[in-house]
Amino acid sequence: MIFADKFRQNNMNRFFSILFFLLVISLGSCKPIENLPDEPMVEFRSFTLADTIDILGNPAKSGKLLFYFEDGDGDLGAAAPDSSSYLPDSNLFLQLFRKKNGIFELVPPSDPLYPSEYRIPYMDTPGQNKILKGRIEVTMIYFLYNRTDTVYYDFWVRDRRGHDSNTASTCVFVLGDIGTCGT
């Protein structure tokens, strides 16, 4: 009888030890649900200038803007254009500032370096958590430029519901140089 009681007590102790261990592991593995605002957020990462050759064999410069984004409701990226639309919706906007007499000025639309608007393709996440996070790289080609132009970009994105993100700025760079600036 004493042997049976001791056996039951050892098994109960083991059972509670295992139960406690499993409880600690399950509580430690639970992550809180992340909440982000519905408005997208952008953060500048880097800008890289390099020498390149265009498709016609002419020397040119390429600029690569790399930025991080977050969107809490997951509606970043333009919807696929329908067959009646020839122009896709722009949702990445850039403004170029050039240094003139020591002061940065926004370039006018007539400037050969005036930036295009861009289209981020449609993105979606499966499941209930619709948060989108990631990095986007945009490549720009410069044909007509002054090698001593000192410039920078402001940029922002717009999601499918029309929410604009914050405006971020690139580092200041000289178009005649090559290399990377940023974090």
- Strand tally: 9
Q: Give the total of domains.
A: 2
| Shape estimate | elongated
Radius of gyration: 27 Å
Helix proportion of residues, in percent? 10-25%
Low-confidence stretches: none
The biggest sheet, with number of strands, parallel, antiparallel or mixed sense and barrel status, is: 5 strands, antiparallel
Structural class: alpha+beta
Structural write-up:
With 183 residues, the protein is an alpha+beta fold. The chain has two domains: 1-30; 41-182, Immunoglobulin-like (Sandwich). The protein contains one helix and nine strands; from the N terminus they run H-E-E-E-E-E-E-E-E-E. The longest helix is centred in the N-terminal third of the chain and has 28 residues, at 2-29. The protein is elongated, with a radius of gyration of 27 Å.
Summarize the SSE layout with pairings.
Blueprint: H1 2-29, E1 41-53, E2 59-71, E3 92-100, E4 103-106, E5 132-142, E6 150-157, E7 168-169, E8 173-174, E9 179-182
Antiparallel strand pairs: 1-2, 1-9, 2-5, 3-4, 3-6, 6-7, 6-8
